[in-house]
Specification:
Elements (H helix, E strand, L loop, with lengths): L1 E4 L5 E5 L9 E4 L7 E4 L19 E7 L3 E7 L5 E7 L8 E2 L4 E2 L4 E7 L7 E6 L1
Antiparallel strand pairs: 1-2, 3-4, 5-6, 6-10, 7-8, 7-9, 7-11
């Protein structure tokens, strides 16, 4: 058993370990709250993730190109498909697809978009 306590002895948290399994950790999800789960997906120096939980795409690079274009990259997860959508005005009723869905390979995908005469553009990425 491991106990985390305050200076006055008040128990903040405790864990009573049972039989352990190789390459499977036990932790709270979400981090620091909620119930404990067994997790076989390693996340060193990152937040806990449950098995088969999809990590949301995160933009890892953004470049403004000459001629009014923008280029950005995001990471993917194998077995999923990613569709980039855009709006020129957030008050528009719907999002417009930007190109075709991109297959997730575990590598980054780079998208280039010509903004044309639009002074701004908003993007979102959906995952299937």
């Amino acid at each position: 058993m491991i106990i985390l306590s305050a200076l006055d002895g008040t128990v903040i948290d405790s864990v009573n370990f049972s039989t352990q399994t190789n390459n499977v950790s036990e932790g709270c999800f979400p981090d620091g709250t909620g119930p404990r789960f067994f997790m076989s997906t390693p996340t060193p120096r990152g937040p806990n993730r449950l098995p088969n939980q999809l990590t949301p795409p995160e933009i890892t690079g953004l470049i403004l190109l000459p001629g009014g274009a923008v280029q950005f990259s995001f990471g993917t997860t194998t077995g999923h498909s990613y569709q980039v959508l855009y709006k020129n005005d957030l008050n528009e009723a719907s999002w417009t697809p930007l190109g075709n869905p991109q297959p997730g390979t575990g590598a980054s995908v780079t998208i280039t978009d010509n903004l044309g005469t639009n002074p701004q553009r908003f993007y979102r990425i959906t995952v299937q």
